[in-house]
Amino acid sequence: MLGYTYPLLGIFWTMLVIAGFVVWIYLLIVIFADIFRSRDMGGFAKALWTLGILVFPLAGVLLYLVARGGTMRARAEMEAQRRNAELESYIRDVARTDGTAAAGTGDGSTAEQLARLADLRDHGKISDSEYERGKAKILA
């Protein structure tokens, strides 16, 4: 026999072990991120969970998923909603200060709205007919 032939089953098991290792690393990252982002745990509890996962990796991860797995999802959803609200607020602020916001939205006095509308027309962002319609809407 000149060389070792790698059997098909050996390739399968190698791929399975690599995929399992990738999933394991992903789980560790997600769990450590959840531990340190969690606001309902104190520093001592965070240290104990971290130590437990580092000393007993398999048991620590499984225990964490059983004990706090349901709240992990809830915390992730709340964080996503908070970030979405921040993004929407930022977009509204930028649109309001950019000068491209629609006139007549009820923000500011009539004079400010007319001035903003005239500025948009002067910069070529809206046409004269759009200016007249916006002016009529503001004054109505």
Characterise this structure.
The structure is a single chain. By secondary structure, the chain is mainly alpha-helical. It is built from 5 helices and no strands. The protein has helices at 8-37, 43-55, 57-98, 110-122, 128-139. Helix 1 (8-37) packs across helix 3, helix 2 (43-55) crosses helix 3 (57-98) and helix 4 (110-122) runs antiparallel to helix 5. The longest helix is centred in the middle third of the chain and has 42 residues, at 57-98.
List keywords for this structure.
elongated; 5 helices; 140 residues; mainly alpha; 79% helix; 0% strand
Helix-strand string: HHHHH
How far is the first residue's CA from the last residue's CA?
A: 95 Å
Shape: elongated
Spatial extent as radius of gyration = 29 Å
Structural class by secondary-structure content: mainly alpha
Largest sheet report: none
Low-confidence stretches: 100-104
Helix content: over 70%
Number of strands: 0
Proportion of residues in β-strands: under 5%
How confident is the prediction overall: mean pLDDT? Answer: 83
Count of DSSP-assigned helices: 5
Secondary structure topology:
Elements: H1 8-37, H2 43-55, H3 57-98, H4 110-122, H5 128-139
Helix pairs in contact: 1-3, 2-3, 4-5
Question: Can you give me a brief rundown of this structure?
Answer:
By secondary structure, the chain is mainly α. It has helices at residues 8-37, 43-55, 57-98, 110-122, 128-139. Helix 1 (8-37) packs across helix 3, helix 2 packs across helix 3 and helix 4 packs antiparallel against helix 5 (128-139).
